[in-house]
Design a protein that fits this description.
single chain, about 230 residues, alpha+beta, Structural Genomics Hypothetical 15.5 Kd Protein In mrcA-pckA Intergenic Region, Chain A, Alpha-Beta Plaits, 3 domains, nine-stranded mixed β-sheet, about 25% helix, RsuA_PseudoU_synthase, Pseudouridine synthase, isomerase, RNA-binding
């Protein structure tokens, strides 16, 4: 089946789709011996696609999971303190996967796990600033806290990008951040005079937790993988 070359190069681990456009614009990609351009399509099963003269390798089969992490689990593969780990929850997935980023012991919600090192690096690199949205149940003066949470803040000597913070119910906030500093949302709330009772990540980039039950996991769809690789 024919697909745009940007998508094919991304699926084969050559680059992101955006970087693939640069390869095409620079004339580094050929299809059946002819220089390809942005917008061209090809069939990776039928056509001879090359980058800098080298044929594409078939992508290794990788595993991409979404987990609804419960509270009380640490985001690691093993724990010297004997605490429960997210690795135990996805033990039946058939692959050795690792978490992409972290959710602390008392936090819950969307957590990605994979065995794809390139994608892990891309999602965690600070330059990508992937949005993360949280539902936060708090105690304290929310009206007074909102200007603080939305304003300039600094953690560990690092100036944070202004967060998008909106009320999402009685004592509940929607908090969207772009970084992933240690316990960032909890520390932001503490600086604004709020006590966090519950914290749940509901979105990362364009991926939403949806109705996935607590403690359950599922494989990402092809469409969701495309969103991650944008």
């Amino acid at each position: 089946m024919e697909e745009r070359l940007q998508k094919i190069l991304s699926a084969h681990g050559v680059s992101s789709r955006r970087a693939a456009e640069g390869y095409l614009s620079a004339g580094r990609v050929t299809v059946n011996g002819c220089t390809a351009r942005v917008g061209d399509k090809a069939d990776p099963e039928r056509d001879d696609i090359r980058v800098d003269g080298r044929p594409l390798r078939r992508p290794a089969r990788r595993t991409y999971l979404m987990l609804n992490k419960p509270r009380g689990y640490v985001t690691t593969l093993s724990d010297e303190k004997g605490r429960r780990t997210v690795a135990e929850l996805v033990a039946g997935c058939g692959a050795r996967v690792w978490p992409v980023g972290r959710l602390d012991l008392d936090s819950e919600g969307l957590l990605l796990l994979t065995d794809d090192g390139a994608l892990t690096h891309a999602l965690l690199h600070p330059s990508h600033e992937v949005e993360k949205e949280y539902r936060v149940w708090v105690e304290g003066d929310v009206d007074a806290a909102l200007p603080v949470l939305r304003g300039p803040m600094e953690l560990d000597g690092y100036a944070l990008r202004p967060a998008q913070v909106t009320p999402a119910g009685e004592g509940v906030l929607s908090v969207v951040i772009h970084e992933g500093r240690n316990r960032q949302v909890r520390r932001m709330c503490a600086a604004a005079g709020l006590r966090v009772r519950r914290l749940q990540r509901v979105r990362e980039g364009e991926l939403c937790l949806g109705a996935l039950p607590v403690g359950a996991w599922r494989h990402l769809t092809g469409e969701e993988l495309c969103l991650l690789r944008k």
